[in-house]
């Protein structure tokens, strides 16, 4: 019987080793799999390459993973926000590498990675610093730059409901990078609020089909990152 | 500014409002018109801000502020959201600017300073893919230097992408000849406006008093 449910965060995260590439879902705190990230800090792998839209807030979640010195490189579109101090500090000190990518290019590189497309041409960033060193080709009189697909060893995402097949639904704008990161990772791990019986998610409403998901872990009441940041919480 | 931008957006347009001042446009939709507001983190059909204590941390805009969704809204993932942008499906993008050049070049993501943390978000995708790019900005910097230039000195967001600029002093269209002034603030003279602007302004058929 196919059953992608695991019973604990350590079991969900097992096998993530030093040097792994990890996609982490979320746009700000919406969809950020904070319990999985804290579990990854507990697990301890270092020299990670993290692919995520942002770099976290305060000293919890993704910011705590970076603060713990576990991340060698981030591939990211917007590595700062109102409450981000960890990444700027390490970046200015030259202790973390940044590959800055326009947000749509980041999303499309991840989608392409999941769809088996090694590279694609896009008009975004043509003529800017972010096009430096990239192949330019003209189609129908307009210039495009070549961008390469992104895949990863693991994806950590937060979804709303899952069944044992790994079918997922999300909540509102917390969906963001979840579906495409599940596609692009060799092992996609989803923390979900509710686990339901097969069939309870209407097949018409499945957002991420289970084929893209390898492990599901139940986190009934995820902590709210912005509350922790307001309280000045520090993880661990 | 926000009222003038909203007045120029046609009925039925799909519109992305940038973070900050452009968000104000949502409050000035003219009577009888309907815009569908897109937020690039994954929603078509942004509604008004939520009532106090009704905020949902999983329902936010690109500025990470709480929002609501209208009846008839749709959620989608990031690749679909940027397919709407990059695939030319959105009609209007309203953005802020640090600098705009008279050929339509836009700089709005970085001052290029060595110690700045570079962050670009979706701006380069919006200017590359959306049919009409409208800029809302103060006419000058806080210390009075022009933002409307012959050539941008900051790193570019896009090359030749801006359609029109709305400032506190004027509405300016980008033409093959450069900046064409379409409207000016009441009481302002052409000479005064030119003094606050680096690139030459063209004034043909400019109404001196905009709709009030």
Overall description:
Chain A has a single domain (5-118, 151-231), classed as Glutaconate Coenzyme A-transferase. Chain A has 7 helices and 12 strands. Chain A has helices at residues 9-13, 34-43, 61-67, 86-92, 103-115, 178-184, 225-231, and strands spanning 5-6, 21-24, 48-51, 71-76, 97-100, 119-122, 136-139, 142-148, 152-162, 168-169, 185-195, 215-218. In chain A, strands 1, 2, 3, 4, 5, 9, 10, 11 and 12 form a 9-stranded mixed beta sheet that branches. A 3-stranded antiparallel beta sheet of chain A has the order 6-8-7. Chain A is globular, with a radius of gyration of 18 Å. The termini of chain A are far apart. Chain B has 212 residues and is α/β, with parallel strands linked by helices. Chain B has a single domain (2-202), classed as Glutaconate Coenzyme A-transferase (3-Layer(aba) Sandwich). In chain B, 13% of the residues lie in helices and 25% in strands. Chain B is built from 4 helices and 13 strands. In chain B, the strands form 2 sheets. Chain B has a 10-stranded mixed beta sheet with strand order 4-3-2-1-5-8-10-11-12-13. Chain B has a 3-stranded mixed beta sheet with strand order 7-6-9, with no helix packed on it. Mean pLDDT of chain B is 94; it is low at 208-212. The interface between A and B is large, with 51 and 40 residues.
């Amino acid at each position: 019987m196919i059953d992608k449910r695991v019973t604990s965060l350590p079991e969900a995260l097992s096998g993530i080793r030093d040097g792994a590439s990890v996609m982490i879902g979320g746009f700000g705190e919406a969809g950020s799999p904070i319990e999985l990230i804290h579990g990854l800090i507990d697990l301890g792998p270092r020299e990670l390459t993290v692919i995520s839209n942002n770099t976290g807030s305060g000293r919890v979640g993704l910011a705590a993973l970076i603060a713990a010195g576990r991340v060698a490189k981030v591939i990211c579109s917007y590595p700062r926000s109102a409450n981000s101090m960890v990444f700027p500090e390490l970046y200015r000190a030259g202790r973390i590498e940044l590959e800055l990518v326009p947000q749509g290019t980041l999303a499309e590189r991840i989608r392409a990675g999941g769809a088996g497309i090694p590279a694609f041409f896009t008009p975004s960033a043509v003529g800017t610093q972010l096009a430096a060193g990239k192949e330019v080709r003209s189609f129908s009189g307009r210039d495009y730059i070549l961008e390469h697909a992104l895949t990863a060893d693991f994806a950590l995402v937060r979804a709303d409901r899952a069944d044992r097949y790994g079918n997922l639904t999300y909540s509102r704008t917390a969906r963001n990078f979840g579906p495409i990161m599940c596609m692009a990772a060799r092992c996609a791990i989803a923390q979900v609020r509710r686990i339901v019986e097969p069939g309870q998610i209407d097949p018409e409403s499945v957002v991420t089909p289970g084929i893209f998901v390898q492990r599901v872990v139940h986190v009934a009441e995820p902590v709210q990152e912005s509350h922790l940041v307001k309280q000045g919480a520090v993880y661990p | 500014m926000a009222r003038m931008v909203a007045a120029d957006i046609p009925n039925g347009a799909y519109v992305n409002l940038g973070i900050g001042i452009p968000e104000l446009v949502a409050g000035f939709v003219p009577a009888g018109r309907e815009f569908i507001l897109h937020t690039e983190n994954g929603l078509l059909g942004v509604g008004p801000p939520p009532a106090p204590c009704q905020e949902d941390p999983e329902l936010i805009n690109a500025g990470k502020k709480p929002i609501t969704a209208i009846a008839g809204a749709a959620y989608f993932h990031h690749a679909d959201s940027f397919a709407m942008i990059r695939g030319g499906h959105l009609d209007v993008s309203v953005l802020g600017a640090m600098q705009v050049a008279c050929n339509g070049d836009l700089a709005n993501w970085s001052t290029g300073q060595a110690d700045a943390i570079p962050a670009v978000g979706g701006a380069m995708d919006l200017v590359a893919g959306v049919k009409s790019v409208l800029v809302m900005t103060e006419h000058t910097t806080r210390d009075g230097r022009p933002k409307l230039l012959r050539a941008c000195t900051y790193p570019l967001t896009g090359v030749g992408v801006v359609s029109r600029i709305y400032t506190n002093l004027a509405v300016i269209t980008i033409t093959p000849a450069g900046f064409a002034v379409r409207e000016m603030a009441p009481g302002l003279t052409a000479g005064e406006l030119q003094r606050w602007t680096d690139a030459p302004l063209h004034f043909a058929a400019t109404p001196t008093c905009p709709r009030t």
